[in-house]
Amino acid sequence: MAEPLPEVLDRAPCGFISFTDDGKIEQVNATLLDRVGYGRDELVSHHVETLFGTGSRIFYQTHFFPLVKLRGSAQEIFMLLRTKQGDDVGMLCNAKRSERSGQMITDCVLMEVIERRRYEEALLEARQTADRANEQLEAQALELELQHQQLQEQAAEMEVQSETLQSVNDELVVLNEDLEKQRIAADEANHAKSNFLAVMSHELRTPLNAIGGYVQLLEMGVHGPISDPQRETLGRIDRSQRHLLRLINDVLNLSRIEAGRVDYAVEPVKLRELVDSVQPMCDPQAARKSIVIESAVPERLVAMADREKVQQILLNLMTNAIKFTPTGGSICIEAHAAPDSVSLRVIDNGVGIPAEMIEKVFEPFVQVDASKSRSAEGTGLGLAISRDLARGMGGNLTLESTVGQGSIFELKLPRAETAQQNERTPTA
Amino acid sequence: MLTMPLPPDVMSSDILKRNNVKVFGNGTQPMLFAHGFGCDQNMWRYVTPAFENDYRIVLFDYVGSGHSDLNAYSAERYSTLEGYANDVLDVVRALDLHDVIFVGHSVSSMIGVLAANQEPGRFAKLIMIGPSPRYINDDGYVGGFEKADIDGLFEMMDRNFIGWANFMAPAIMGNGGRPELGQELTESFCSTDPVIARRFAEATFLADNRKDLAAFNIPSLILQCSEDIVAPQAVGEYVKSNLRGSTFRVMKATGHCPHMSHPEETIELMKEYLDGRTVA
After folding, report:
1. What pLDDT does residue B10 have?
2. ipTM
3. Contact B154/A55, CB-based, under 8 Å?
């Protein structure tokens, strides 16, 4: 048994306890005894673990004792002491191990921590919250990592698809290049054809004009008098020459249009004036067949077009109408207006055209009935040229027809703004 | 198994540094000392001198303890005792030890069993100081603790971590301005990182290695302290009766660290056993 503690240490405002390496309590001061509720005899010579709960006993054996034994001292170690009543008291402990009376004694000073413990609890709770949050973050990071991997896999897949698409695209580019080459070749061929036709037509017209000229000279008796049979023959030569010349002119025109070599002098064209200028040209031909031509064209309708081309088209349409209308028939010219366009309709009550032939009549060298065209001579290029010209001016030429009732050719042209539309109220 | 041996050429120096391995002594047969939970290789300093002349002494710190390389710590690897057993095997392989006398304190007794079960060929004898295959009571088994008692320990540790954490801050920040604190920290407790110590505590006190005893087949000595709160005598007797070829000695020493509190008796019993004077 160790000596009694001096009064000043016994009553110091902190706990004091000393024990051997075996844990046998040598001394304990009154302050600590008061706090833990034990009598001095209940602790002295008993094991220091008497003052510990189970957790503290393990902690003492695994941490406190090895530390003090190895280092000789320990500072600020938190220990839970268990009172005789069974309550746990938080104590902060400083310990020092030294030799006294021939054996190693560990002296401990213990201070109860109350306020500090509350802060520590809050700190602990905060740390545990932070730990949990951290674990969640780590889990989320893992999740993100997984998603990242999936995205990478998808990206790789898309890369593969992209390569496939690229190779398909490459093939398409090659095909497109081939098509472009073919298109250029076709264009070149078409141009060559048009050029050929233009040149040939020109070359053919020169000798034809010579033929015509010499026929006229013979008819005039320049080379001496001619007999009636000779005159008749010269007339046939002359008609054939004219027909051939017309044919060549039409071919030349068509090839010019197709080659894009036609210029359009677009201007406002009053339809009434235009019809009035064309109609007299047809009157003699119509009169021969006792055909009546009626026209009902309002004064105000104005087209944006090339006047000469429109005349050419209208003349062609009317000539056709007269050709295919039986003797004593009638032809009517009407005009109509739409917001953006105006149109002229040439209406006859002739033989009509079967539905399956309606589109074909606009193709070059097509006539509906070869037997009929013999009597009504023509080149078969008129409608093709007319439609190309109409389209070249931003319009169109269409046909409605019923066999036995007649045909309606409609020439549609862009509408010119009227004078009224131009006279807008000036704004300030 | 968790074992993934590293290539021998790169392994040795890394492992020796990682586990702060110390080798000394004049003998040839290796004695490998494994510290317990809450401390480091320093705890062996009272007993190793007695074996230096006859054996080759190998000391080490588990990763997360003492002066081991904290960067090598992996929460996953060290969440179970298998991870610590792999530390033992890494050291044994790095030094290419054979015929090893393994001396384990407390939880290291079971860690030794796990290591020897993996590579029984390298181990000659196991000396267990205060072993327990399971700390928490179970049906028909007395481990000495209820789960609530262990929770009390965790609470104690957590409360001390607050103080540690205060110490840790300057150490983590490179000891800016107060370089003495870092040193104080490493010297104050045997484990240097409170979070690692807490995980070691969980791996230790929540483990159940009773089944591993059955597979163990190497001669062993069980040193049982009197009045050991951590490993009560009933637990030591359980180990004895479930471990083939084991020798059971109850010590006069009390507490849980007889190699520190009663090194002479500990040395004497170990020598008796190693010299073959013990009657099993």
Report:
1. 46
2. 0.79
3. yes
